[in-house]
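Ticket #4471: structure output looks truncated?

Reporter: J.K.
Steps to reproduce: submitted the chain below (250 residues) through the standard prediction queue, then opened the result file.
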Amino acid sequence: MREVPVELPCLRTFMTTDSDLTLQPQIAALADERPGAVFLRADLQVHTPIDPQFAPRPEPTAANERVELARRYLGAAKERGIELVGITEHNDVSWIDELRSAAQELGIHLLPGFEVESAEGVHVLCLFDPNTSVERLEEVLVGLDLTRAKRSQKRLELNRFIYDDIVTRLKQAKSSRQFLIATHNANIPVLGDAEQIVALDAREAAAGARVKSFVRARGSIDSSDVRAAAEQILEGGHEAFVLRQAKYQA
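Returned output as attached by the reporter:
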């Protein structure tokens, strides 16, 4: 009987050889595991119930209601085959703990984080280690000079800038040219009186198949189908239509 070295992926150990060369059970079990990297179906830009377009409104505050909503939210993701989510609400981490708990119950991998905007107007997704605490995420936001008060103010300032500057310039220029814009912000098409809005969606596909996109709604801003799609998909959709109505009634 002698000892010889045996190398397996990520493991170096020794086994004892005799007439039947029996491997130790724990080493033999490694042969049944799937080696190397694996692919996960992921959505790395997931918003939270704090988003104005999230139903139900208003955002629930009771602890049991928040836990149940988080469970239903990620449960819907699991039904669609999502195995990994990245939580990236704009400048906010207030739902991370509830969503992380729900993900653990459902067997979904979760990366906590947030979405911020650079000085150049670029949106940046910031994702962290799965075990990063909410306190640490808040520290990072504060380090970026995004305190809670400033975060709320930035949302207001962004919408004001879009309406006062971008929308105004678009309306002035569109009489002599056409614009094709893909946007998350409702103020551009709604307050900009877009002549044509196309809302796209995607159908679920079998594993390994290409996802099929389709036109969910198309038409002018006054179309009921277009309005319903805009309010559900675009950030601040309902509020933009309220402002538009007030503008024309003034």
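Triage note (M.O.): checked the attachment and the full token line is present. The helical segments are 25-28, 63-79, 96-106, 134-143, 148-173, 187-191, 224-233, 237-249.
Status: closed, working as intended.
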